[in-house]
């Protein structure tokens, strides 16, 4: 897809998403959130009669997935939907969470698919049970095949291509792309995309659950090959370790990363991180709740079989001051 065609497609997708948000707020009227009632009475986190289960592969407390959760719960409160967010990084355990949601006969299901094969049966069973599914974040290529009504996220390949282009334009010549989660197809797609536009790319496998070892492996890799002058992290936590690894190795390599948090924002301001690829994960939580409400109340669908793109956007020194307050707020 040419860059002009991609920009037009992305603009159309974002415009459609914005229109749908407005429609959800002023269009078909569902149950509104319950009033506060008796003082001190327990209230569901997102009130309302539309029950949506959000099941992701993110770890509890992960900064990235907390923003997704914030988006989903904010949409639930605004649209009168009860949102139940659960996550598990183990594909088998994630599949069980989906099965449990189906057994509870929820009205809608939102699922991230880092490992589509492990989730296929569970998602297809949800569809067979008449539960509309929206996939988010990863697994874009399998979403329609499994019966989902929409996918919300960024194209990992296009995002990787954009990162590679920026690093090449910065004058870098050899890139180390750090994969931190084995079996996550999206991470391989990011590195493969970077290879397409950058050229000289090698990958390094680390374990995000062992940050000390991950940092040590990155340090060893740049020490072993002084020609490496750029490191692309695929996660904000890994980026922080990469910055320390490069400093410890005495290397002049520059770090870039996928995803934002307050540490990455600070590192961009200080010059330790060149840029961050921002997939605007708040939208990945928020928009599916809008889409499911419209589907249940007005039989609306979006995307026409193609994903609703939330990225890639890029945050660097030119716009970091604008974005920074939203990272502190938990919406970017």
TrEMBL record:
- Chief subcellular location equals other
Which UniProt keywords are present, listed alphabetically? Signal, Sugar transport, Transport
Q: Where is the Periplasmic binding protein domain?
A: 53-293
What name is this protein filed under? Simple sugar transport system substrate-binding protein
What's the source species' lineage? Bacteria, Bacillati, Actinomycetota, Actinomycetes, Pseudonocardiales
Output the superkingdom of the source species.
Bacteria
Protein localization: Cell envelope
Of which family is this protein a member?
Answer: Belongs to the bacterial solute-binding protein 2 family.
Q: What's the source species for this entry?
A: Kibdelosporangium banguiense
Signal peptide from the UniProt entry: 1-23
């Amino acid at each position: 897809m040419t860059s002009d065609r991609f920009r037009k497609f992305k603009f159309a997708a974002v415009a459609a998403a914005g229109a749908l948000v407005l429609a959800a707020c002023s269009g078909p009227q569902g149950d509104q959130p319950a009033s506060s009632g008796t003082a001190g009475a327990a209230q569901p986190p997102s009130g309302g009669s539309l029950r949506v289960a959000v099941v992701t592969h993110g770890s509890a407390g992960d900064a990235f997935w907390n923003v997704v959760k914030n988006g989903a719960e904010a949409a639930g409160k605004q649209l009168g939907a009860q949102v139940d967010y659960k996550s598990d990084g183990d594909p088998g355990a994630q599949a069980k969470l989906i099965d449990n949601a189906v057994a509870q006969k929820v009205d809608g299901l939102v699922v991230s698919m880092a490992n589509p094969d492990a989730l296929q049966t569970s998602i297809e069973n949800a569809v067979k049970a008449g539960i509309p599914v929206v996939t988010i974040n990863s697994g874009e290529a399998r979403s329609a095949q499994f019966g989902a009504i929409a996918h919300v996220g960024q194209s990992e390949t296009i995002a990787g291509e954009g990162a590679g282009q920026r690093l090449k334009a910065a004058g870098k010549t050899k890139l180390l792309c750090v994969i931190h989660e084995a079996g996550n197809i999206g991470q391989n797609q990011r590195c493969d995309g970077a290879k397409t536009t950058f050229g000289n790319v090698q990958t390094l496998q680390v374990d995000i659950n062992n940050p000390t070892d991950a940092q040590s492996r990155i340090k060893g890799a740049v020490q072993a090959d002084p020609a490496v002058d750029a490191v692309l992290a695929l996660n904000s936590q890994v980026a922080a370790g990469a910055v320390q690894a490069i400093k410890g190795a005495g290397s002049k390599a520059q770090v870039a990363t996928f995803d934002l948090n307050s540490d990455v924002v600070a590192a961009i301001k200080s010059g330790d991180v060149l840029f961050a690829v921002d997939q605007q994960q708040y939208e990945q939580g928020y928009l599916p709740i809008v889409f499911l409400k419209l589907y249940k109340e007005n039989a609306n669908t979006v995307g026409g079989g193609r994903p609703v793109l939330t990225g890639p956007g890029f945050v660097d020194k030119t716009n970091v001051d604008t974005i920074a307050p939203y990272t502190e707020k938990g919406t970017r």
